[in-house]
């Protein structure tokens, strides 16, 4: 089976992995929006305590660890060796237990169908060749009635201006080439895929991030960065 | 171990200021069945009749919002006589002629804030707590283990009693054990400054003026205290200095210290006539990474221990307690689980901005003071900045969110 992996994308993240937990480094925006993402998850899931959660595309573990912090049993998967090493090391330092594995979402779904209360897939779909296949895998992994959260970047002119032109080229907040606008996904498209795989979209919010003021909040507009909450039928 | 496990709606770890304040904020709340919340306080130190042994000699500057809240709980009524109003803030620089004054009158308030000794506030809080039959004390006792369950929290006490709760409030201080049980990390930032705190009697009465004096070694705050008379000469001094200077000041005899203080502070109130016991506190910011956990909330110093420079630590903690009891009252009205996590998370979210702004204010003041002698204009700005946190007029955002 050909893995649903873009090796150039993996290489990009391998290179900057050591920066992952630097609060003022390349991943600063991610650290700043993480509380918003977690808050959105909590609003729907109620408590994270003893919930079995899978974080698909966990990278250096920013979200995974913050979920485990609140008492969830978390598994984080990624195909980047270095980010996973960074994640494991950080978990050792913080004393928070997360099970990190190098495996694709599709392979994970073969092994652990219907096992998770919650599956999260944040800022990941725009980095794989076949995002639809990830949506399918997430649906397979979650228990019936369980929740899947997707966040990604919308394919709008505004998202090009903000996420690529401003963030990468002008302000250099994130490394040049972090994102490819062609890979961005419209909410309608993502919701369509989700529903095709028995995931009913029950809520959506925009994640607003102003790189200059560093102001960040959840908003109604899905123009740029957005997060969906889906429930498996 | 006893076979029976006692269950409470709320267990409070720590019977200090924030613990007892939390208890009396929650004790009047009614559940759907008409009964009151059952509350337990687990306190390590035996309570003494002489509460100065339980609470230390520090003083607190209370903002208007804090005073209104304490009034609503009936605590202020017990304290009133012992709280000294600040009618004027007087800001001056050593070695400069200029000075600035901020008056209560010109801000249309009866006082800019109140100064109260921690031990007296503690006494008033304990008195109020004693009026509630639904507050149970485990004292002296300690929570030795916490076992989180989905629907409740199980705890074992040093006395080998087992208790459980819907909600655990960690009011167990800067080194909170409960915070450690939940594996919540905290960050500590040392300011490399110490606060030397001492009560003094001045030659002249203070007339309810609070003095902020900038000196080469650091700022001196001279806060008015009551002594029962109309013309109190009693003040609390908070002298912020580098740690090695604090040691030097501690090693002086009372007479030498009086002289040093008179010299640094100036003669606004004449000479320093009498000096009480000097205590030094290293200044640092301790901040928990998370404010809430499953069925647990960190309250007061367990959540944030703040540099006292702007006098905002206790006021901030009090706003936390007020917001928390407001949230719990809403949950009771809707017959919801008071320990439901999404509400606790929403509470933490709601409080985050206030925490950050107080910490930012504190940091900016500390940075300003750790440099050279700040010009008076900076002093005036600082005074106004601090005032922002005291007067109800300027603090409308907080007033609105807190409902007072």
Secondary-structure topology with pairs:
The complex is a heterodimer of chains A (233) and B (404).
Chain A: H1 7-15, H2 28-45, E1 52-56, H3 62-68, E2 73-78, H4 81-94, E3 98-102, H5 105-111, E4 116-122, H6 131-141, E5 142-153, H7 157-170, H8 187-196, E6 199-209, E7 216-219, E8 225-232
Parallel strand pairs in A: 1-2, 1-4, 2-3, 4-5
Antiparallel strand pairs in A: 5-8, 6-7, 6-8
Helix pairs in contact in A: 2-3, 5-6
Chain B: E1 5-13, H1 17-26, E2 39-42, E3 59-62, H2 64-72, H3 75-79, E4 84-86, E5 88-93, E6 99-103, E7 113-117, H4 118-129, E8 135-138, E9 143-148, E10 153-157, E11 162-170, H5 177-181, E12 186-202, E13 209-215, E14 218-224, E15 234-241, H6 243-251, H7 254-265, E16 272-275, E17 279-288, E18 292-293, E19 296-298, E20 304-305, H8 313-333, H9 341-370, H10 376-390, H11 396-402
Parallel strand pairs in B: 1-2, 1-11, 2-8, 5-13, 11-19
Antiparallel strand pairs in B: 3-7, 4-7, 5-6, 9-10, 10-11, 12-15, 12-16, 12-17, 13-14, 14-15, 17-20, 18-19
Helix pairs in contact in B: 1-4, 1-8, 8-9
Helix content of chain A: 25-40%
Strand content of chain A: 15-25%
Count of individual beta strands of chain B: 20
Computed over alpha carbons, the radius of gyration of chain A is 16 Å
CATH architecture classification name of the largest domain in chain B: 3-Layer(bba) Sandwich
What count of domains describes the coordinates of chain B? 2
Could you describe the 3D structure shown?
The complex is a heterodimer of chains A (233) and B (404). Chain A has 233 residues and is α/β, with parallel strands linked by helices. Chain A has helices at residues 7-15, 28-45, 62-68, 81-94, 105-111, 131-141, 157-170, 187-196, and strands at residues 52-56, 73-78, 98-102, 116-122, 142-153, 199-209, 216-219, 225-232. An eight-stranded mixed beta sheet of chain A has the order 3-2-1-4-5-8-6-7, with helices on both faces. In chain A, helix 6 (131-141) links the parallel strand 4 (116-122) and strand 5 (142-153). Chain A starts with 6 loop residues before the first helix and ends with a strand. Chain B has two domains: 5-56 and 119-186 and 287-365, FAD/NAD(P)-binding domain (3-Layer(bba) Sandwich), CATH 3.50.50.60; 76-118 and 189-283 and 368-401, D-Amino Acid Oxidase, Chain A, domain 2 (2-Layer Sandwich), CATH 3.30.9.10. In chain B, helix 1 packs parallel to helix 4 (118-129), helix 1 runs parallel beside helix 8 (313-333) and helix 8 (313-333) runs antiparallel to helix 9. The termini of chain B are far apart. The longest helix of chain B is centred in the last third of the chain and has 30 residues, at 341-370. The radius of gyration of chain B is 22 Å and the shape is elongated. Chain B has eleven helices and 20 strands. Chain B has 404 residues and is of the alpha+beta class. Chain A binds chain B through residues 35, 39, 42-43, 46-50, 69-71, 94-96, and chain B through 148, 150, 183-185, 289-290, 293-295, 340-342, 345, 349.
